[in-house]
Amino acid sequence: MANKTVKKSTTQNNEVKKKKFPKLSLDEQISENNSENDRERKLKLLNLIAEIIVEATLRDLYETSN
Question: pLDDT, tens digit, for every residue of 1-14?
């Protein structure tokens, strides 16, 4: 019999998050949100830089192989 994984609903995930983290003040929530946004932007920038480097490297290898 195959193992089935049961996905939690968004509501269940939110409930789990609420239990893990104590209630934060509004300023703390804003600060945490800003930090998360900064992390996401930095990650997107790093991914973009990596993509550009890979593309340029592949293009160079392709051009020099001909």
Answer: 455 555 666 666 66
pTM score > 0.70 for this model?
no
CB 16, CB 8: distance < 8 Å: yes
Q: Please, which residues have CB within 8 angstroms of residue 16's CB and are 6 or more apart in sequence?
A: 8
Write out the H or E segment, with its range, that includes residue 62: helix 26-65
19-20-26 Cα angle (round to 5): 85
- CA pair distance 22, 38, nearest whole angstrom: 22
